Amino acid sequence: MLDTTIVNVAVRTLGSELDAGLSVVQWVVTGYLLALAVVIPTTGWLAHRFGAKRLFVTSTALFTLASGLCALAWDAGSLIAFRVVQGAAGALLMPVAQTILARAAGPERMGRVMTVVGVPALLAPILGPVLGGVLVDTLPWHWIFLINVPVGVLSVVLSARLLPADAPASGRQAFDFGGLALLGPGLALLVYGLSRAGDAGSFAHPVVWSTMPAAVVLLALFVLHARGRGERALIPLGYFRDRAFAGASVVALVLGLTIFGVMLLLPLYYQQVRAESALTAGLLLAPQGLGTAMAMPIAGRLTDAYGPRRVVLVGSILVTASTLVLTQITASTSYWLLAPALTVRGLGFGATMMPAMAAGYRNLPPAAAGHASSVLQIFSRVGGTLGAALMAVILAQHITASAERTPAALANAYATTFWWATAITAAGVVFTLLLPNTPLHKDHDAATPSPARGTTA
């Protein structure tokens, strides 16, 4: 998760060091994201075919190897190729980790476990620019990739020793190549089109108009294909008949849109309006990360005790309220005023994304955990990409409409964009009502009849 953001800070440095234009070096980031989008849907089948532990250890080893190769890249082309391999391996890590934890935790402890593993996912966008800025300012560019190697080696050793062994499924299900041929390129084109819209500051860019319709057609064809294959599909659509899973998928999409879209604006405001460095901007976002880290363990226990709907609803309201505060920013807003707002925002983050995802597993059998993880990751990533693109386009439109480029005018453009973010976040609160309103043990108690008096268990 950290690797998806840490490289962004170093794009210009990589361009100068590798003697490549910005349009070429940008593929160091884009290639990684596209590899993620294509490979994530295969997680369920691969975990079923080879076992979750074996897949996790192999993916970590490949990710570590690819990181070392990125550090040894001799030109932009080789670096892009190694980043694609790195992204393909990294695509499997988060869904497989969630699969392993979902099986080990069991439904009644799902909230606590999923919120703990979710801490890195929400802290990475905050810490990535900070760590990237430190490495680029103090060390050669190779270290933004070499830093992964010792962590990866340690992870491989510990995972091989400590993760519970699981055997591959006895029945070998044929891989759905047709589904991958439709879903993989469809997701890749969708992510690429949204990313280009954000970079260009407009959805009217020719690349966006050429990729987005193609993505919609491929995804629609995949739905038809998956309906025909049933349980043998790359992602079985039958899971969406479960209300908890369907609700969690929709909420993951909406929260990705509302949370990660605004995450793009905050560091840009600090750098563009307040003229802060990437390192300082990252440090100023620390209260948000602190709030997230504090809220997640508590939110997990509350989810297990009272059900996910109330927890996610409160978290969404906190995110909305703190975003409303950001609509009042100016070119001289005190950082001491922004810090409490970001802390509250972090508390809201900690009570939303992972409790919502945990709800998706509650009624599914353990064998479905791999497919469920893939779906929830896809919805979250697409929502995040859409949110980032949407906020970037709205911001660009307001900056272009302004006749001045003074800090005050730029601050006003950011404040107006935060109004849009507040409205979208507030609308997203409604979708939290799709989540279950009771803890799992109450659902089970209601569904399981009491034994007759006098009988033994």
TrEMBL record:
Domain Major facilitator superfamily (MFS) profile: 1-440
Keywords from the named record: Antibiotic resistance, Cell membrane, Membrane, Transmembrane, Transmembrane helix, Transport
SUPFAM superfamilies: MFS general substrate transporter
Principal subcellular localisation of the protein: membrane
InterPro entries attached to this UniProt entry: EmrB-like, MFS, MFS_dom, MFS_trans_sf
Membrane-crossing segments per the record: 24-48, 55-74, 80-101, 113-135, 141-163, 175-195, 207-224, 245-266, 278-299, 311-329, 335-357, 378-397, 417-435
PROSITE patterns from the UniProt entry: MFS
Pfam families, alphabetized: MFS_1
Subcellular location as annotated: Cell membrane
Membrane topology: Multi-pass membrane protein
Protein name: Multidrug efflux MFS transporter
Species this protein is from: Streptomyces cylindrosporus
